[in-house]
Fold this sequence. Notes:
Elements: E1 4-9, E2 13-19, E3 25-32, E4 38-39, E5 42-43, H1 44-59, E6 67-72, E7 75-76, E8 83-85, H2 98-101, E9 110-112, H3 113-124, E10 133-138, E11 142-148, E12 151-152, H4 183-187, H5 192-195, H6 203-211, H7 215-239, E13 243-247, H8 255-266, E14 278-281, H9 288-295, H10 300-307
Amino acid sequence: MNWILGIDLGGTGIKCGAFSLTGQLLASRLAPTRDGDVSAGGPAFLDEIRAAMLSLTQDFGGVPPQRAGVAAPGLAARDGTHVAFMPGRLRGLENLHWQQALSCREPVPVLNDAHAALLGEVWQGAARGRRDVILLTLGTGVGGAIICDGRLLRGHLGRAGHLGHMTVDHHGPPTIAGTPGGIEVAIGNATVSERTGGRFTMTRDLADAAQQGDAAAQAVWDESVHALAAHLAGLICALDPEIIVIGGGIAELDDFLFVPLRAALAGMEWRPHGQGVEIRKAALGNWAGAYGAAFNTLPPATTAENLGCIS
């Protein structure tokens, strides 16, 4: 049986999925990343991935994957063979050429993890078959990716889609990229303590307090959602998406996020002919990156047939 392998390398965990050519998840393996550990002179995460590949191959009677793809943090090289820029963590990832590292016959294409997550959502998730899509992932920070006219925007250096660093308050503190008052400062989990005067350290705790009638917590949350709505309104004017998909841990707040967000956006969005952009929760959860990494292995003809949009 022909199958393809999607590998999502995260900071703490690795997801390896075996997929059919039409996007069905057939089998999966989870493994620790072991960031900083070294094995046989290379990063230990390679041992974990090789073991997962072998285990999945055994599931298919010893038939190896037809192709394999990787999603990882950082900026992917223009030729898609490796991650060209990922300072500070995941030692050994920068400039690691995956085809050689995994001893694969075919090239192993590499994508930024947020780019891969969007491909996954468009292939088999919340934005299936759509041609103009924005993805935002709300977690510790804010990640993102863009598909415009059916094509994933990567940009000159691979920075395209890093939407969390776009400014919503030019007087605000800088993001990790140095841009002032980015949206990830306004709503990311990393800044909850600063935004609440030290009362909370997690967005979930802030939300729980607000839902229990804490007026101060509700005010902080309302301000964060208002900033996010303004951010989306600007993105809509710049990119004219058909749908915006929101994922990440903060999206798990469901109606507590989406109801006020849609209401705030209704008062800001430019809506020609009264038509607004659909805001939808991501569907693939933590596996979106693996789906996207697998999809990225498919040849253009197969891609067009399966997806009907991305080329």
